[in-house]
Specification:
323 residues; Jelly Rolls; 2 domains; seven-stranded mixed β-sheet; six-stranded antiparallel β-sheet; 5 helices; 10% helix; 35% strand; RmlC_Cupin_sf; Cupin_2; Cupin; RmlC-like_jellyroll
Length: 323
């Protein structure tokens, strides 16, 4: 594969194209400054304005959210896995029907495999613009987002209506639901009872991994974060490894499924027959299946990288208490 062909599978941080109208809370005060990025796969955006950088199926989606301080993402749920790691800033994640069942604060490099089937939201509590990267299970990411009822009601008060087909219409732009199309129904009280309310103590020990802990685990070999024998619970349809400057190997490697490389710290050099590329934090690279490559830091100093590869596992199990 030539360098030009591979460059088409690299999304540079500086080339990311944001969408500010991706979801139903795009006009809601406190959430109206969000930027959403769909990097690999179609994602779960509800807006036709969302730009997809790489549409090649991987068995999972890669996205990102960029938010200024005090900006939050409203309470929602997914039918498949949702894994976040903090690229930049300081973030508070919260969950439950009203967002008060539990919470955790993540720093740069920390990763959170949010349990499937619970309402969750997040906000930038840092002092500068922050960015979190996301891995969503499945090629279709579970068919969209399930919003807490109050989010849909708040959005309606600010001019946005979500159709039952998951498409947004903005009355501020003169848009209305097409004739015969109904708005997204609110979840009933009985339906809401099916969404668990795990506490912080239920979730954090089993679903959160800290950057410094992973650096220690990956001192001599890459650390399996999610997947078979992973540090975090669940086998969500993809596995995630954490690689550092100390555990990186110059040995050639390849995978049965496409691999996605996402640097957190430092610069990384990827070499394959036909070319090479250097990745920086915020860059995303898709390595084709069965293509041998080497992955090493391109300079001295601290370096860390998350790698995600699809598996044959189901795309995430509903949350359940630890055994």
């Amino acid at each position: 594969m030539t360098s030009a062909e591979m460059e088409a599978r690299i999304v540079r941080y500086g080339d990311l194209q944001p969408c500010k109208t991706a979801f139903i809370d795009a006009h809601t005060p406190g959430s109206n400054q969000k930027e959403n990025f769909t990097i690999i796969g179609g994602g779960v955006s509800e807006s036709p304005d969302q730009h997809v950088h790489i549409s090649i199926p991987h068995g999972f989606n890669i996205g990102a959210a960029g938010q200024p301080p005090k900006c939050r993402n409203s309470l929602h749920s997914h039918r498949t896995a949702e894994v976040f790691f903090v690229l930049k800033g300081r973030w508070r994640f919260f969950w439950g029907r009203w967002g008060n069942a539990g919470e955790v604060v993540l720093e740069e490099g920390d990763i959170f495999n949010i349990p499937t089937g619970i309402f969750r939201g997040f906000e930038n509590i840092g002092t500068d613009y922050g960015m979190i990267m996301a891995i969503l299970g499945g090629d279709d990411a579970g068919g969209g987002v399930i919003w807490a009822p109050q989010v849909i009601e708040d959005a309606r008060d600010h001019g946005l209506i979500l159709s039952s087909k998951g498409k947004l219409y903005d009355s501020k732009k003169g848009q209305a639901l097409p004739e015969g199309e109904k708005p997204m129904p609110l979840l009933t009280e009985d339906e809401l009872k099916a969404f668990p309310e795990p506490t912080t103590a239920d979730v954090v020990p089993h679903y959160v991994a800290r950057y410094l802990d992973l650096m220690a685990l990956a001192d001599r070999q890459s650390a399996r974060v999610i997947g078979e024998n992973g540090k975090l619970r669940d086998k969500p349809g993809f596995e995630v490894d954490f690689i550092t400057n100390r555990s990186a190997s110059e040995a050639s490697q390849s995978h049965d499924h496409p691999a996605v490389l996402m640097p957190v710290k430092g610069h990384w050099k990827v070499v394959w027959e036909g070319g090479s590329a250097t990745l920086a934090p915020g860059d995303t690279m898709s390595v084709p299946e069965n293509l041998p490559y080497t992955l090493t830091p391109s300079m001295t100093g601290e370096a860390a990288l998350y790698r995600s590869v699809g598996t044959a596992d189901p795309a995430g199990a509903t949350w359940a208490p630890a055994a």
